[in-house]
Design brief:
Elements (H helix, E strand, L loop, with lengths): L1 H14 L5 E3 L2 H8 L7 E3 L21 E6 L8 H8 L7 E6 L3 E3 L5 E5 L6 H6 L3 E4 L9 H8 L4 E4 L5 H4 L7 E2 L2 H13 L2 H12 L6 H13 L2
Parallel strand pairs: 1-2, 3-4, 3-7, 4-6, 7-8, 8-9
Antiparallel strand pairs: 5-6
Helix pairs in contact: 3-7
Length: 227
């Protein structure tokens, strides 16, 4: 325990030398602020060069709600919780497509494991879903997959543990959930009517796309280095 305290104090001394912290979300700021007191900080979302503006007006005319999940199936990502929620909803009303791992299908549920994808197939992945769900249980500082889905015009539902909720809220507060009962309620509503999805997509298209790498670099220069 004493060695741990010494290591913690060492890191605190290192952090004390930092003039300004760049936090990529309010979640990141909140978690770090529990342990350190930054001299100065800026909250600026992140991106990468592969995320470009591919937004299009989407139609939601399928009778089946096509739900997407992208990532690994470890507990902290919330996949098992999402699956539990969906098991309580009429399974003739939805399909779940899981990308990022193995290939297969759940025996008694419309859950399809699609394997991995790459730059050549990414458009197909997002075209095949009506909504992406990011149900993380742990404090996820950002979530680039959320931004990636938005860049294709896909509505995204995120847990309040996901840093990118700051962006999702710009389009519809209802798509950020605090507990899995809220998620269940929203998915049930979407399985009955796609009106909220269409509204989300339209709000997304109305706004300027702020998340190019050039814009991010300029925000860092203006927000941190010039100051």
């Amino acid at each position: 325990m004493n060695e741990y305290k010494e290591l913690l104090n060492y890191y605190k001394q290192c952090f004390a030398l930092v003039d300004c912290f760049h936090f990529n979300s309010k979640i990141a700021y909140s978690v770090y602020s529990d342990y350190i007191q930054p001299k100065d900080c800026k909250i600026i979302p992140i991106t990468h060069a592969g995320i470009k503006d591919h937004r299009v007006e989407r139609t939601f005319d399928s009778e089946i709600l096509r739900i997407g999940f992208i990532g690994n199936l470890t507990p902290y990502k919330g996949f098992s919780k999402l699956l539990s929620v969906l098991q309580e909803i009429d399974n003739t009303k939805w399909n779940l497509f899981v990308w990022g791992g193995h290939v297969g299908k759940e025996k008694h549920l419309p859950v399809f494991y699609k394997g991995k994808f790459n730059d050549a197939t990414i458009k197909y992945v997002y075209d095949a879903m009506d909504v992406l769900v990011v149900p993380s249980i742990w404090k996820e500082t950002f979530s680039l997959v959320t931004l990636e889905a938005l860049s294709y015009g896909v509505p995204v539902i995120v847990s309040s543990n996901v840093g990118a909720k700051d962006i999702v809220r710009l389009y519809d507060e209802k798509f950020v959930f605090d507990d899995f009962e809220e998620l269940k309620s929203l998915l049930e509503e979407l399985s009955r009517s796609k009106v909220l999805l269409s509204k989300f997509n339209k709000e997304l298209l109305k706004s300027e796309w702020y998340y190019s790498l050039d814009k991010h670099a300029q925000d860092i220069i203006d927000g941190i280095y010039k100051d």
